[in-house]
Fold:
Amino acid sequence: MNKPRVTVLMPAYNAEKYIKQSIDSILNQSFLDFLFLIIDDGSSDGTENIIRSYNDRRICFVKNETNIGIKETLNKGVMISDTEYIARMDADDIALPKRLEWQLEYMDSNKDIGVSGGHFEFFGHETSIVKMPMKDNEIKAKLFFFSGFCHPTVIMRTEVLKKNNFLYGNLVNFNDNFGHKILELEDFALWHKLKHVTQFGNVDKVLIKYRKEGQNISAKNIKIVHDRKKVIYYYLLNEIGISASNEEEVMFLYTLQYFKDDPKIENIKKYKQFLKILLEVNKQSGVYSDEQFEVAVNRIWEQFFYFLTTFSLKYVLNYWKVSRRIQSNQLLYYVKYKLKYGLN
Structure:
């Protein structure tokens, strides 16, 4: 039998509630040439029994005797994989029937792209379709603030990972004057390494249904995630040429969290000045496309407005003063919001 082209890598931990739906969605793909590597990370519920109930030659089941965590489980899967591609899948999401077919067609047609993903649809407590950026420069520019990929939709060229010795959660070496190291945020750290060695892209299609509640790893331990992301922000600022010397500069990248902690009206102007500095410094360093980075920065500033509408009118007026303009869509939104929730 010929070696499959794709390894679908699914880590699972105490996922008995939803994993059958997830497994079925992969086994029922229109594209058939894959190995389904499911790694049970020491579950204490019925996850293992559900996986073992399947009799499908494409499934390769691996059991971690103890819980080693998502990062090490993913890295174990990467090291085991020897197919052309590795596609990610979570144990509580549902892949659309043509997900792998669409992604293989895209990757085969774009040989310079090493990592790609696609759009996703929230389901569960809330439903909505979230669209991801399409082009390489756009994805990388957005990556400064957020992930340009929905991780469970991602497909990667195995050769790109192994040639560069890249694994999830690799340490990023840098000197931030505080001795910080990046130990986690496994996917975010990996994208920032890969951005220097390969092209990124996303398929203009919804690839998975992403469960809003339940077992999604990214929804757990949010404070720990924020603390780890703070360390990455030190790296990102240093990378474009800003030597972060205090907590405030790093917290500016959180935008909303920073303002919640210190909701002073003068911080609106300080935040706008910080975004302006980002643009100026990036033009000198050239880490990100000037055009796309400006788009990403402007979008962050615009999103900030919608957060400020939850405060009193003076905050919104100050935002417009700092912006030096009032956008009609923002004015309309503000009026509707206050009519619905009341003026304060």
In short: Residues 241-341 form one domain. Residues 320 and 327 are 9 Å apart (CA to CA).
